[in-house]
Write a structure and sequence with these properties.
Elements: E1 3-12, H1 15-26, E2 29-31, E3 37-41, E4 55-60, E5 71-75, H2 80-93, E6 96-97, E7 108-111, E8 117-120, E9 131-138, H3 141-151, E10 155-159, E11 163-167, E12 175-180, E13 191-197, H4 203-213, E14 216-217, E15 226-229, E16 235-238
Length: 242
C-alpha cells in the first residue's frame, strides 16, 4: 500500500477571493466541490490526481493567522528575468513583499492577500509546472524524509541535516521539501498536505499503516476522510481512495 500527495489545503477567510488570486497566480482553473470551498487545478486536459500537479483547495476558516505558516509554496521561474516578471505580475494581483529574516537570497518572498507566505525562485524549475516545490518547515529533515518516503510512494532524492527533497514516483510535478528551522509549531497549520491512497486500497488499513510509521490520529468528528499528524505534529488529511 502507498499514498501520494495530491493537493494542498489552505485555510482562508474569503475562499473565493483568495482562490481567485491563486488561480491567476498559477494560471489554473477554478471549481467548487462544496459551499465554503474553492478548488484549483490545471486546465487543458488535466485529470485529477495526475502527479504532474499538486492541486490547491481553499477552505473557509474564521481562525486568524497568528504566525508564519509551516507549509508554503515555491513558485517556479525559469530565469532571473522571468522571476522579475512573475513577481511584478503577482504584486499587481495583490501580493506584497515581506521580510521573514531571509537575508540576501536569490528568491523573492511574498505574501498573498491573506498574508500566507510564498516564494518565487529564480531558476532551475522549467519542468515542474507553476509550483516548483511544496515546502515544509521542520526540526529534523532526515526524520521527515523517512516518514514521508514510507508514507507515500514519492522518491527521496536528497537528504542532509538541513533539508530533504522528495518527488513523485513518476518524476514529474513539483518537489516536496523539508527545511530545517528553529521555529516552534504553534497551533493548527493553516496550510497542510492532503494525501490519497490508490484505487482499491482500504482507508482504515492505510490509516493504521501510517500510525505504524509514527503518525497520530486527530479526532475532528464524523467525516469520510482521516485527519492525522506526522511525527512533528504537522496535520495532514488521508483522503478516500481514488
Amino acid at each position: 500500500m502507498a499514498t501520494r500527495l495530491v493537493q494542498i489545503n489552505m485555510k482562508a477567510h474569503d475562499h473565493a477571493a483568495l482562490g481567485g488570486f491563486w488561480a491567476e497566480a498559477l494560471g489554473w482553473g477554478v471549481d467548487s466541490e462544496a459551499p465554503g470551498v474553492t478548488n484549483l487545478e490545471p486546465q487543458g486536459g488535466y485529470v485529477y490526481p495526475d502527479p504532474v500537479a499538486v492541486c490547491v483547495d481553499l477552505v473557509t476558516s474564521t481562525e486568524p493567522k497568528t504566525a508564519k505558516n509551516r507549509v508554503h509554496l515555491d513558485l517556479a521561474a525559469t530565469s532571473a528575468a522571468h522571476q522579475a516578471e512573475l513577481v511584478a505580475r503577482l504584486r499587481k494581483l495583490g501580493a506584497t513583499p515581506i521580510d521573514i529574516g531571509q537575508g540576501d537570497v536569490s528568491w523573492t518572498v511574498l505574501a498573498d492577500p491573506e498574508g500566507n507566505e510564498f516564494c518565487v525562485v529564480d531558476s532551475g524549475y522549467d519542468e515542474t509546472g507553476p509550483i516548483a516545490s511544496v515546502v515544509v518547515d521542520c526540526a529534523d529533515p532526515r526524520a521527515m524524509a523517512r516518514f514521508w518516503g514510507e508514507a507515500t510512494d514519492w522518491t527521496v532524492h536528497t537528504v542532509t541535516d538541513d533539508s530533504a527533497v522528495l518527488r513523485s514516483a513518476q518524476g514529474v510535478g513539483p518537489y516536496l521539501r523539508f527545511v530545517r528551522t528553529a521555529d516552534v509549531k504553534t497551533g493548527w497549520n493553516r496550510v497542510h498536505l492532503d494525501i490519497r491512497p490508490y484505487p482499491g486500497d482500504d482507508l482504515e488499513a492505510e490509516a493504521a499503516r501510517l500510525r505504524g510509521l509514527g503518525a497520530t490520529s486527530i479526532d475532528v468528528g464524523d467525516i469520510s476522510w482521516k485527519v492525522l499528524a506526522d511525527p512533528e505534529d504537522n496535520e495532514f488529511c488521508l483522503l478516500t481512495p481514488r
